Amino acid sequence: MLKTFAKGGVHPSENKLSAAEPINDLPIPPVITIPLGMHLGVAAKPIVQKGDEVKTGQLIAQGNGLVSANIHSSVSGKVLKIDKALDASGYKHDSVIIQVDGDEWLETIDLSKEISDTCTLSSKDIIQKINDAGIVGLGGATFPSHVKLSVPRGKKAKYLIINGVECEPYLTSDHALMLSKGEELLTGISILSRALRAEKTLIGIEDNKPDAIENLRKIAGKYNDISVHALKVKYPQGGEKQLIKALINREVPSGGLPVDVGTVVFNVGTAFAVYEAVQKNKPLFERIVTVTGKSLSKPSNFRVRIGTPVKDLIEAAGGLPEDTGKIINGGPMMGKAISAMDISVVKGTSGILILNKNESRRKPSEPCIRCSKCISVCPMGLEPYLLMTLSEKSLHERLERDKVMDCNECGSCSYICPSNRPLLDYIRLGKSNVGKIIRMRKK
Questions:
Q1: Where in the sequence is the domain holding 418, given as residue range(s)?
Q2: Which of 221, 250, 280 is the last residue of a domain?
Q3: Is the pLDDT of residue 1 over 90?
Q4: Looking at the domain assignment, is residue 61 inside a domain?
Q5: Prediction pTM value
């Protein structure tokens, strides 16, 4: 019997339209806009100025504080300006804007195709290289990886869990990576295990990717402490806490972290970026992005330089369909609509989804009928209908008491609601407000 998490979950249509598509390199645009706050935590501090010449892979902004990340140029050229630019949030934030001139990489980056599968660095040196390379979680959270690897004193990461689930409908970037870069990926995973001093590594992949499971199992046979596990197809199987429950049957406590139950979780994309950073001295300045949608003529997986306009990806996938209703940054369950196509691809951009007018149209919201379906599908055991009401009424103390911060924003409640209530929208608002109160309390 396939492993899965016990509590809640839904089964949306998979719509993996680009699953069979290879990874293609997207041409570099003439101008790149690189946001300085594309990771969780404090925005990076720019160390270049207008008029500076930069090379591909060059550090252009330094991590600014404990939870922050370095940012590197994804192109070579001249810094046009450092200015505010619109990002996926709909707000303008500080960005470095570069006029592209060729593609001259730093000499320290190893451009050879040869796979380097041996790492003798110490845990401390690995973490430093990951920090230097500006690697963050590529599954969407964008938490700086060097911070996650720095296990607090008194705790032990016995298990390293690698997330190859990709349960979000439509998205296939991780699937494509597992098929095309298996050797490099397994080396990156072994490096993460070495950095954590983990005793056991488990890779979780949903059973709808049998080719990826077979490929990684074949390669993992070379490693004594790495195993590949097929998981039942159920959303949100790729949620950190759900994946931990499915693979090692441990529950992360409310308000706790995976390391509290002896584990650390990384996405497969992050593991591949670790391989490139540690073995090839390549900073994180490009990633794999799925561009997809039922009306799109060429759903595709692209290797994209950070800072590339979203409109370039859409154009490469056949252009914007006439019946487009919404453009989603991410997948249909957890992604958010964007208001403009000239925003940049950032480190956390896993996919761009084009929804047609029929798919994107919201049905009228009706009164709650007390059916409790939202409770039954919540993987965190929360009461979404209640959290929405408390958020509407700005009852923040009660929201905190009823554990709104435990919500992983998977959207299962909104998906299942027969009254089409905007449960996740209000819960996100409530989480934001409660989060601000908690931060103020700690000052």
A1: 373-442
A2: 280
A3: no
A4: no
A5: 0.96
